[in-house]
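Q: Here's a chain of 284 amino acids. Please give me its 3D structure as tokens.
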Amino acid sequence: MPRAQFPHKILWLASYPKSGNTWFRAFLTALLNDGHVDINNMDSDGIFSSRYTFDLVSEIESRDLYDEEAKLMVADVYRQLAADREALTIVKVHDAFEADTEGQDLIPGDATHCAIYFIRNPLDIVGSLANHMHFSMDEAVQMLGDKAACMAPQAGNLNKNMQFTQHLSDWAGHVNSWTIKPSFPVCVIRYEDMLVDTFATFSGALSFIGWQYTDEQISTAIAATNFDQLSAQEAKKGFKEKARKSERFFRSGTMGNWHKELTAEQVNKILLLNKDLMEKYKYA
């Protein structure tokens, strides 16, 4: 099994929300299971912000900790999680790449094999984020430009949600944190390339990880996880990762929707904040 090639190490699947992370996890699940995928039972090891994982590994009730106290321990939790595994651990993460209050990276580089970072045109993220968070378009635009933006904020700084607070920063800050700061290898994948040339993009990601699969195996996994297949699964039995107030998780699976969804003022706000980075990744 390819995951056994890299025991005691972690593969991070990192992204700002709504940038292709879930699609790629579904693809890996199909790849590891002969073309079969259940979107509610993906072949990965959860999300970095999971309180369940923290409590299970640390044997500490995180409900009794302030968020900053838990963050001081989370790197060791994932070191231990990886050390206990005889196969590559695969973890989704939406948090920006940051340090705790003592200056130590939240993501433990010494336990990391590599990371895949998914990037998407922020203009297209707006509509998907608004749907996911049950926001207006203006609220989603504001979130992408907010350095204090987070998901799963805790009431009174105590851990009552299923997940720890995920600090995102603004979109540009999130991208820069994952593409500049890590000491371990990071492969940046554009969501648009996933759409336009899925086979080449996913094959390149697998090579970066160090996994070898046949063209037929890759094509089978891609066919099993196209948007229509994933959307049909959600329509039939729901998707546990869908936000409670959102109508659906798999919304359109396309690019360029911002042309019909955003006003000129909203577009200009995104461009003014992110012009250089958008030019770098060929979005401007």
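Q: Can you summarize the key feature?
A: Residues 142 and 269 are 9 Å apart (CA to CA).
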